[in-house]
Design a protein that fits this description.
Elements lengths: L5 E6 L6 E6 L6 E6 L8 E6 L7 E6 L3 E7 H8 L3 H16 L9 H13 L5 H14 L1 H14 L8 H25 L1
Parallel strand pairs: 4-6
Antiparallel strand pairs: 1-2, 3-4, 5-6
The protein binds zinc ion.
């Protein structure tokens, strides 16, 4: 969903004002449901994508208070089948949604990825990622989450003939997951 921005149009005035928000381009698969909880002020839509450039799952925050959980199609259906990697990922994203703390990154998604990568290069995990992992552990248990991350490392391994960029991405992603496993192990087990 890179570069797909939410645009706003306003009609009418004051109490009659109507806001219409629309994306630059439609999401490929689109709305598939929502997350609702007393912990949330309002339900958050779940939106499927099958765009390869998108993350497996991500919380996308548009402006103030409009949050969408974006997921790759197979992750969503994996969640329904009790696939550990898929459930861990979804609860991690719900953790981002409920525990928040992303204010400084709204509209600066690239900055988030950059800070995350820089933390990793310093041998650390970005704090917001730890908060979301802890949330997933509260709901699924530490062993489940660790197993989920291990399955994720295995299932996302690129094919032998993948290009350097893909391998590079995988290298960082799996290195971060290993660190997250290690931290959960130390904190909860
Ligand atoms: Zn995260």
């Amino acid at each position: 969903m890179k570069n797909n921005k939410l645009n706003h149009m306003y009609f009418g005035h004051k109490k009659d004002r109507i806001q219409i928000a629309h994306l630059n381009r439609p999401m490929l698969l689109g709305y598939v449901g929502f997350v609702e909880s007393p912990l949330l002020e309002k339900p958050a839509p779940l939106v499927l994508t099958n765009c390869e450039d998108d993350d497996l799952a991500a919380l996308r925050i548009f402006g103030t208070g409009t949050s969408v959980i974006m997921m790759q199609k197979e992750i969503f259906y994996g969640f329904k089948r009790d696939n550990r990697a898929a459930r861990t990922i979804l609860f991690h994203e719900i953790g981002h949604l409920i525990r928040g703390g992303h204010e400084e990154y709204i509209g600066r998604r690239e900055q988030y990825d950059e800070d995350r990568l820089n933390s990793l290069k310093e041998g650390k995990i970005l704090g917001l990622e730890e908060v979301a992992d802890d949330f997933a552990v509260e709901y699924l248990g530490a062993e489940y989450v660790i197993q989920g991350f291990r399955e994720l490392i295995e299932t996302t391994r690129p094919l032998e003939d993948a290009d350097d960029f893909e391998w590079e991405q995988y290298k960082y992603a799996s290195e971060e997951l290993e660190k997250r496993i290690e931290r959960i192990n130390q904190k909860f087990i």
